[in-house]
Amino acid sequence: MEETQLWIDKGIQFAVDYGPKVIGAILIYIIGSWVIKKLTNVLRKVMMKKDYDESLQKFLVNLVSWALKIFLIITVISTLGVETTSLAAVIAAAGLAIGLALQGSLANFAGGVLLIIFKPYKIGDLIEAQGALGVVKEIEIFTTKLVTPDNKLAIVPNGAMANGNIINYTAEGKMRVDTVAGVGYESDLKKTKAVLLEMLKANPKVLQDPAPSVNIMELADSSVNLAVRPYCKPEDYWDVYFATIEGTKEALDKAGIEIPYPHEVQINK
Questions:
Q1: Handedness of CA 21, 27, 31, 32 (dihedral sign)
Q2: Which residue has the higher pLDDT, 61 or 185?
Q3: pLDDT band at 6, cuts 50/70/90?
Q4: How far apart are CA 263 and CA 223, in angstroms?
């Protein structure tokens, strides 16, 4: 009976000593979680009104949310009477060990942060980087996903993207299409240039500013090579490229201008 009363007294004393701390910790966690949810929602709405990039929105909201949650957990543990100094040391040591084990992933994470902050490209841009050419489909924290012209998905690590050369074909809003047309030396060059320029201007997807150009670029062994260079919007690049190749052949044939080609000489024995 005395032993039972002793356990009851200890239970009451424990409740008196730690009950308020436990209740306080629970209340802090509930209220803190509610506040974090409200703050992240407000941050999300503000960024949507400011028209921030979608990838940047997700990254910053998640980063703020996790930082606040970690702070809340430390506060709750501190309220329970646990020494947070030693806890912080354990977290730092664990973070160092994880960092050493995941150096490559952390480099990609850091690269993703830099790409999202400085935005050398955005979703929908046509870019060339790390040997891949394609339209940006998604910018994640660790990788960037590109859709190539032949509809393949290229996944490129952000560490390499942030530290390598990036060519953004969409950034300036226009691209130059480079093609070459060869004509015979006996051809009237002024007429040839006029015919090709007329063909380019007739294409509605060819921009008139900057104006398309046709210039002599090389006196080759069997032909005079002309640089045929229209400008277009990035999304029209391949349409204009193939239309220019086909249109060049048709326009020169119609104008009676010869396109030279190798001739095989046969010797009868």
A1: positive
A2: 185
A3: low
A4: 13
In angstroms, rounded to a whole number, what is the distance separating the alpha carbons of residues 98 and 89? 14
Using alpha carbons only, what angle is made at residue 67 by residues 36 and 160, rounded to the nearest 5 degrees?
130
Contacts of 210 (CB under 8 A, 6+ apart): 174, 176, 231
Residues 79-121 have pLDDT tens digits of 776 666 665 666 666 565 555 444 556 788 788 878 877 889 8
- Please classify residue 267 by burial: count the beta carbons closer than 10 Å to its beta carbon, then call 0-12 exposed, 13-18 middle and 19+ buried: exposed
pTM exceeding the 0.70 threshold for the entire prediction: no
CA angle 143, 146, 149 (to 5 degrees): 165
Q: What is the mean pLDDT of residues 219-246?
A: 92
**Between 93 and 268, where is the model more confident?**
93
What separation in angstroms does the CA of 210 have from each of 61, 153, 161, 244? Answer: 42, 33, 31, 16
